[in-house]
Amino acid sequence: MRIGNIDFGEQPLFLAPMEEVTDGVFRRLCKHYGADMVYTEFVSSDALIRKVEKSLKKMTFFDEERPIGIQIYGNQKDAMVEAARIAESMKPELIDINFGCPVKKIARRGAGSGMMNNVPLMVEITEAIVKAVKLPVTVKTRLGYDAHQKNIVEIAERLQDVGIQAITIHGRTRDQMYTGTADWTLIGEVKNNPRMHIPVIGNGDIDSPTKAKECFDKYGVDAIMIGRATIGHPYIFSHIKHYLSTGQILPEPGVKEVVAIVRRHIAMAIASKGERSGILHLRRHFAQYFKNLPHFRETRIRLLTATTEEQVHEILNEIEEKWGEEMEFV
Q1: Is 255-323 a CATH 3.40.50.2020 domain?
Q2: Residues near 109 by Cβ (< 8 Å), separated by ≥ 6?
Q3: CATH for the 2-246 domain, from 1.10.760.10, 1.10.3720.10, 3.30.470.20, 3.20.20.70
Q4: Helix H or strand E segment including 200
Q5: Beta strands at 6-7 and 2-3: parallel, antiparallel or unpaired
Q6: What ranges do the domains of the chain cover?
Q7: Widest Cα–Cα separation across the chain
Q8: Using CA atoms, how far apart are residues 262 and 293, in angstroms rounded to an integer?
Q9: How far is residue 73's CA from residue 260's CA, in Å, rounded to a whole number?
Q10: Contact 19, 284 (CB under 8 A)
Q11: I want to staple 145 with a disulfide (CB 3.0 to 4.6 A). Which of 3, 114, 116, 242 is the partner?
């Protein structure tokens, strides 16, 4: 599979952009475990053109993260075009447009998946960005705005016609948010539409090697993007790749192995953000790394309220001592 000049090989796996999750530290961790493509957290076009420091920082990355896409969102053509040019100056491999975020405060003002209520403007913005930058432009979106408006087949055709070089489709509508089950049948319809010739990347509910293989085989997508299932589970990429190439399921890592991964994650986060900010940022991951351990509630609360590196490592030592010898994750 190719996007522009980037050759990803067969059945590549992408890390989905997730706000407050896919910072540079987590992107590098997922790359270590085999993610073929990563993206920045989505960046507001309005904030970029105002040169808001936090948004500018979101676009920074290390060469070891390549190939990487910078994802932008907004609802004003001129702002989106200028933001795309700013993003291009950071020299990523591609620019990705977010037409899929379902969060109310974004969608209600017509950005993210809210743009699916105004397809002509979506197409107009996309075409303007394609013309304004030299990098490949891709789009991430959803099946439609609601159950009565699942118009992704039409949208995909129109976006392809104005020059995008790949489309990622999350198998839910905006109204579904992240509830229910992702519907891959429409993703498959887009992929198998004879008019489509750009890569189609499927997204939604990929949480195991078997599910990934099923979606590749059944729907024929060119790549799979994985989101929430990577939180506290960055090694899912290596497990899926192993299964796709061998047909064998790797065992889940034991407690001591997971603790070692967490220690590495902590070291990277602190080196990047400082002690306090690094640990606070990891709390969402802490909640997932050990979610399958029994009788873990009290320890989890302590882990999620720790504020120093020393406190976190003390708790990790206790986890190893208490669960390390007797437990494997299930």
Answers
A1: no
A2: 75
A3: 3.20.20.70
A4: strand 200-203
A5: antiparallel
A6: 2-246, 255-323
A7: 59
A8: 15
A9: 36
A10: no
A11: 116
Angle in degrees, 0-180, between the axes of helices 309-323 and 297-305, rounded to the nearest 10? 160
215 is an active site residue:
no
Question: Do the beta carbons of residue 168 and residue 101 sit within 8 Å?
Answer: no
* 330 residues of the chain, pLDDT tens digit each: 999 999 999 999 999 999 989 999 999 999 999 999 999 999 999 999 999 999 999 999 999 999 999 999 999 999 999 999 999 999 999 999 999 998 888 998 899 999 999 999 999 999 999 999 999 999 999 999 888 889 999 999 999 999 999 999 999 999 888 888 999 999 999 999 999 999 999 999 999 999 999 999 999 999 999 999 999 999 999 999 999 999 999 999 999 999 999 999 999 999 999 999 999 999 989 889 998 888 899 999 999 999 999 999 999 999 999 887 655 544
Q: Give the Cα-Cα-Cα angle 80, 81, 84 (nearest 5 degrees).
A: 85
Q: Please give the model's pTM, rounded to 2 decimal places.
A: 0.94
Report the distance separating Cα 249 and Cα 233, nearest Å: 15
| Torsions phi, psi for 9 (to 5 deg) | 75, -160
d(Cα 90, Cα 99) in Å, to the nearest integer? 22
Query: What phi, psi does 169 have (nearest 5°)?
Result: -120, 120
Identify the burial level of 257 via C-beta atoms within 10 angstroms of its C-beta, where 0-12 means exposed, 13-18 middle and 19 or more buried: middle
